[in-house]
Specification:
The protein has 2 domains: 158 residues, Beta Barrel (Thrombin, subunit H), CATH 2.40.10; 115 residues, Thrombin, subunit H (Beta Barrel). By secondary structure, the chain is mainly β. It has 4 helices and 20 strands. Helix 3 packs across helix 4. It is 11% helix and 33% strand. The N terminus is likely disordered.
């Protein structure tokens, strides 16, 4: 939902990265200007990221999501907020599945308060997704300082020009470094309630070090950044067992100034952390374990706000 919140104190805009309209299918992703987008499209096709897909929120908005159980999708609450669960569609592996109902995290306060965190939702599908290995959620320690792989289906572009309209629909993947938590951004966004649940990356550019505001100013060789439509897409980290798991879900971001395009060098993107107890418990209470569907489905109705 393309809402923007003006911050006069620092001359920036904060925006939610969900795009209205389906657009054309294209090799998507915001890459370095000197790295071909085809690199990121090919990376997303690797089997370790097979659980990633795209989400149509009632025909009026487009985002991303990840299969975490055969009939359950993890995505962003600012997408499910604008429609009902039975109007949501999830596309994965070339097939589209109809949603049945959606559950927003109980600490989600709505899009107008997105910076307070917990922009997380679960969508129950009408049928099981077969032939796809669901992703696991990361349950380890802090990932601040680590590299994470965003996988989503948002807009394409590069760091010089930012995102290009009409380029939604094809999965892309790329690395960035988790620099800090959102509550540490008060000097950039004074006066806002910023959540420690938010994980922050920035888009480091090889030619514009002055714009690299947090963490190291040296970009990764294939530094990658989300575009609008990547909202709900997950950031994956490699766990100690060698398996790539979900650490957070893309939520919102910043531009370099009023009226500037999103996806340019110097922009920041904030995702909602998954590996804290208040999130893990919610997922466990909402998504049924195999063989105990009735028990946990009832628990989920109590543990989260539901949209049929």
């Amino acid at each position: 939902m393309d809402r923007k919140v003006q911050d006069a104190g620092c001359g920036r805009m904060v925006l939610v990265g969900l795009v209205f309209g389906m657009g054309m299918s294209a090799a998507a992703g915001i890459s370095r200007h000197d790295v071909p987008l085809s690199y990121h499209a090919e990376l997303a096709m690797e089997s370790r990221f097979q659980a990633a897909g795209s989400v149509n929120f009632g025909g009026s908005a487009f985002g991303s999501g990840t299969l975490i159980a055969p009939g359950w999708v993890l995505t962003a609450a600012h997408g499910t907020e604008i429609t009902t669960g039975d109007q949501i569609q999830f596309t994965i592996g070339g097939r589209t599945y109809q949603g049945a109902e959606s559950f927003e995290h109980p600490l989600w306060m709505g899009t107008s308060r997105i910076m307070e965190g917990y922009d997380l939702a679960l969508v129950r599908l009408e049928e099981m997704v077969e032939g796809v290995e669901p992703a696991e959620i990361y349950r380890g320690g802090s990932v601040v300082g680590r590299q994470a792989m965003l996988v989503g289906a948002g807009l394409t572009g590069n760091g010089f020009g930012g995102q290009v309209p009409g380029t939604l629909g094809t999965l892309h993947a790329g690395l960035n470094t988790i620099d800090t938590t959102a509550d540490q951004l008060s000097s950039f966004l004074p006066g806002f309630d910023l959540s420690s649940n938010g994980l922050v990356i920035d888009f480091d550019g090889p030619t514009t070090p002055a714009l690299n505001r947090i963490g190291s100013a040296v970009p990764l060789a294939q530094e990658f950044f989300p575009g609008q439509g990547d909202s709900g897409g997950a950031y994956w980290v490699e766990d100690t067992d060698g398996v790539w798991k979900l650490a957070s879900v893309q939520s919102w971001g910043t531009t370099n100034g009023f009226g500037t395009n999103f996806g340019m060098y110097g922009n920041m993107a904030i995702s909602a952390k998954l590996y804290e107890d208040v999130v893990l418990d919610w997922v466990g209470a909402t998504v049924p374990a195999p063989g105990v569907i009735g028990v946990f489905a009832v628990g989920g109705m109590v543990a989260a706000r539901r949209r049929r």
